[in-house]
Amino acid sequence: MPPAPPEQLVFRALADPTRRDILLKLRGHEMTIAEVADGFDMTRAAVKKHLTMLSDGGLIEVQARGRERINRLNPAALSPLRDWLSIFDEFWEDKLAALKTAVEKDTKT
Amino acid sequence: MPPAPPEQLVFRALADPTRRDILLKLRGHEMTIAEVADGFDMTRAAVKKHLTMLSDGGLIEVQARGRERINRLNPAALSPLRDWLSIFDEFWEDKLAALKTAVEKDTKT
DNA sequence: TCAATATAATACCGATTGGTTTCAAATTAA
DNA sequence: TTAATTTGAAACCAATCGGTATTATATTGA
């Protein structure tokens, strides 16, 4: 297993909508570059660049098979994102609690 | 309440490490621009630009108070990110299940 | 073998980003 | 009132980004 890419590469990879769409497309089954590119309104070369950035972030794994490159989703690489998000869970809860209080106070009057 | 910014503005806002650090810094209590900028190795103007992008993504709320601008964390704006992440939960689970199976098989031999 | 296919690699382009500096405007405090 | 403070806004710069086109390389299939 290659080392987990730094958090920054994950956030950077997800910053582009085309790359997020690629990840969605890769759910379920692996694809060659040409298959991934199919349906996108850009050249294969452009899609390939996006795939490289996704690979840099560890979000996909690429495997050579003959002259093709098989791209496979690696959902485990989303962990840094989950971890970062969890830092804000308590504040999220605080906001919810405050809202609950406000609603209760409102219905009481 | 202003309309929720599109998902893309949230992902874009989080793509920069300085902006993520700003969000961490804003946990707990609100701050003026100068207070946010303090500790960062860049000009106040640069930090202000980051705050603008965070505001564009709805991740902070800005309120004028005299000549100061109070910046407050808005954790609710992270929802699009949570929602997007949840799309991959099932594949995450699949991977875990596969791992579990592999481990069981391994310990059995 | 040889042509077609799948990808890689590079150079190039315009737009955006992340930063700076400079100057103006609004607010506050002495 | 006047000077200091806080911010806003704009011009500018180098680097990165998202895309193109072109060329080269490796693999496959007839």
Could you please describe the fold and organization of this structure?
The structure is a homodimer of 109-residue chains. The first copy, chain A, has 109 residues and is an alpha+beta fold. Chain A has a domain at 7-78: Winged helix-like DNA-binding domain superfamily/Winged helix DNA-binding domain (Arc Repressor Mutant, subunit A, Orthogonal Bundle). Chain A has helices spanning 7-14, 17-25, 33-37, 44-56, 79-86, 89-108, and strands at residues 31-32, 60-65, 68-73. The first copy, chain A, has a 3-stranded antiparallel sheet with strand order 1-3-2. The radius of gyration of chain A is 20 Å and the shape is elongated. The model of chain A has no long low-confidence stretch (mean pLDDT 90). Chain A binds chain B through residues 8, 11-12, 14-15, 17, 20, 23-24, 27, 73, 75-76, 78, 81-82, 84-85, 87-88, 91-92, 95, and chain B through 8, 11-12, 14-15, 17, 20, 23-24, 27, 73, 75-76, 78, 81-82, 84-85, 87-88, 91-92, 95. The structure holds a DNA duplex (30 and 30 nucleotides).
